[in-house]
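ok so I'm stuck.
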Amino acid sequence: MFYEGIQLDEKKKEPLYEQLYRAIRTAIEKGGLAPGSRVPSIRRGAEDWGISRTTVEEAYQQLCVEGYLRNEPKRGFFVQGGLGQQALAASLIEVSPLLPPFRKPQPPVQYDFGTESVDAAHTDSVQWQKQIRQVLADTTAIASYGDPQGEISLRRALSAYTYRVRGVTAPPERIVIGAGIQPLLIQLCALLTEKRIAMSPAPFPQAERVFADAGFEIVRLPEDGSGPLPEALQKSGVHQVLLTPSSGRVIPPARRQELLQWARENGGWLIEDDYNGELRYRARPVPALQGMGGEEWVAYIGSFSKLLLPSVRLGYMVLPPRLSRRYDGRFLAYHQTASKIEQLALASYISQGYLEKHLRRMRKLYAEKSSLLLRALRDTFGKEAVISLQETSLTVRVTLPGLQGEKAVEAARENGIRLRVGGEKNESLILGFAGIPTEKIAAGVRALEKCLKGL
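replied:
not stuck anymore, here's the structure
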């Protein structure tokens, strides 16, 4: 029997649960385990493979998350059928895989080239704390749940701010506040009638998780140097597409007009994740798609994670009129997910002009940091490296001959360097510069070179 042939080796770097997970997943993908067949119970598997029940459970849970197994209460775990992955992989436009396996805890980070943080030395924490204290002093204002759609003072402040900074038409009654992009996407999924969404080939795990959990089929949309291909979108038959700068590419105005034309002619929805749209620092920001005549067809999403603080979990969504009417009919019975205290503080922070002052400071800082990182990479890796700045995502992509991206990222992580892999074939490294202190950039690049030489 297949399960008796599973060999787990404690001497390998790969955790035991990942070894078990991969063995079962491979067998399912290759047809070695038939759909509907039962896998050993957690207790029986632990005994047969000589490992703990926790290890078996972690492997099974990951297989369930990715759709390879299903858990039937009081019956056990069964192979899930109907994956059809081979046929999907052969098509030009394919269904996205779900999230990769969970990773084990890692060593402390000394050089943070990741994309999850900002430089603590340059946050506007003093002014932000002042705004929070002022809100807390008004006990009447904070003694209730607040508006389910978001505080009206914040929606009014955002209405004026987004028009000044991004050219977005955002009446307060069509703005929805949420605790970051994922809660907003969850609400948006409930407003969309078609259970298919087109996305960039570049990974966007947070959005993919939301769409997958909502039962959406994720369709990968081919791109060229200007972004998503309208003809491929037309061919896919999908009527809604998420546009995001996760690939680091800015969609030029001409392509934006083509996408708007597609939406008008096909009754499609464009979901514009304008992540860091106002933070461009080497050139004037490209106008938001919503402000280019897309008010009727574009759901616009913005946030403040890199501009203010990642821990301030506030995002906002500007709905087109038809989706706004659907929202009014179903979501006003839900409680707000974002802190009322932080909403009121942000409303005051924006209205008094502090956010735009901070924006000017951060543009200058990120221009300096990007220049330092580019110079350090070129000086260290020389002409053999292909280096490109991805301004919207505050990252730099580095491609080296023969680079094994995943192996390089893992080796860097073990040496206290955080970064991530990029490229369709994992042939590139993605270095973020928002979180790493300026004085650590050059040393971090040298440490990375030393690490890569050891591979």
